[in-house]
């Protein structure tokens, strides 16, 4: 990271929030770091049509014991749109690996929410030396588990959509009756039509190529799966599909929908921390 890349939100202790644009060979990425820099690294990857801000409620609960790294995936949040094939899940993994190398991260536990779980898995496939364990939160295991209704026809001629249309689209991302945060509405409106649709198509293509439990079984990495039992996008019972992965730890969150990182941050963080306490690799102390 060069000095021109750095844009700290705060200064002082080593755990201060620091936001940066990493200038990478295959496209720039926005990265945000919190927590002690010598603590075990935890990478948080958001789902489609949102950004690293979706983790805001969870981060303060994780930084007491982790160096928490968040990334805006290409075309999302504050990361620019990629050129060419940059939305493909394998390409996202390559870029994530390059970003972690730039940040001098040698080992990391990766937590992916929704389609962020596909980028997390692809990173582990590409860089098994780097990823020590995986946590997938409401990540669909295969396409026939998808249950969301076709209630939001995206019309490029009417982009960006109104708040009402965005809330209609995002509503199944939460348990029934949950108010979609305005920050998420604004986030989606700030994306281009191409970014929204191409990123979603890339996730679908990755899942159709091979169902996720098969990929994870081949990896042999420690795995935790967290699923809200009120998910309205992926059939909650499909969490059991991950039992095909030897040793997988599966947790259902009663009363939570598709996005427990916002709906139930305390319960979600407790599960993540219990898992990472066992499976993190601590950075060596400086001498």
From TrEMBL:
UniProt KW Signal keyword: no
Source organism superkingdom: Bacteria
A Pfam family annotated for this UniProt entry: Abhydrolase_6
SUPFAM superfamilies named among the record's database cross-references: alpha/beta-Hydrolases
Domain AB hydrolase-1: 42-270
Keyword terms of this UniProt record: Hydrolase
Keyword flag Cytoplasm: no
One term of GO molecular function: hydrolase activity
InterPro entries: AB_hydrolase_1, AB_hydrolase_fold, AB_hydrolase_sf
Protein name in UniProt: Alpha/beta fold hydrolase
Organism phylogeny: Bacteria, Bacillati, Actinomycetota, Actinomycetes, Kitasatosporales
């Amino acid at each position: 990271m060069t000095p021109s890349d750095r844009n700290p939100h705060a200064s002082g202790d080593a755990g201060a929030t620091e936001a940066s644009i990493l200038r990478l060979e295959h496209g720039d990425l926005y990265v945000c770091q919190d927590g002690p820099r010598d603590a075990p690294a935890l990478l948080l990857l958001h789902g489609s049509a949102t950004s690293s801000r979706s983790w805001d409620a969870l981060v303060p609960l994780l930084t007491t014991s982790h160096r928490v790294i968040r990334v805006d995936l290409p075309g999302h949040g504050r990361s620019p749109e990629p050129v060419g094939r940059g939305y493909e899940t394998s390409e996202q993994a390559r870029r994530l690996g390059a970003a972690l190398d730039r940040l001098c991260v040698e080992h990391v536990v990766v937590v992916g929410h929704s389609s962020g779980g596909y980028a997390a898995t692809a990173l582990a496939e590409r860089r098994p030396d780097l990823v020590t364990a995986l946590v997938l939160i409401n990540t669909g295991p295969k396409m026939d588990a998808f249950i969301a209704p076709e209630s939001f026809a995206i019309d490029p001629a009417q982009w960006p959509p109104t708040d009402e249309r965005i809330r209609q689209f995002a509503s199944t991302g939460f348990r029934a009756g949950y108010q979609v945060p305005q920050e998420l509405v604004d986030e989606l409106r700030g994306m281009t039509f191409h970014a929204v649709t191409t990123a979603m198509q890339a996730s679908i293509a990755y899942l159709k190529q091979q169902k996720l439990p098969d990929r994870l079984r081949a990896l042999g990495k420690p795995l935790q799966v967290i699923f809200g039992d009120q998910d309205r996008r992926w059939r909650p019972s499909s969490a059991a599909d991950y039992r095909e992965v030897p040793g997988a730890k599966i947790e259902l969150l009663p009363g939570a929908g598709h996005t427990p990182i916002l709906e139930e941050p305390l319960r979600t963080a407790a599960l993540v921390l219990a898992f990472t306490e066992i499976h993190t690799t601590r950075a060596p102390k400086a001498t």
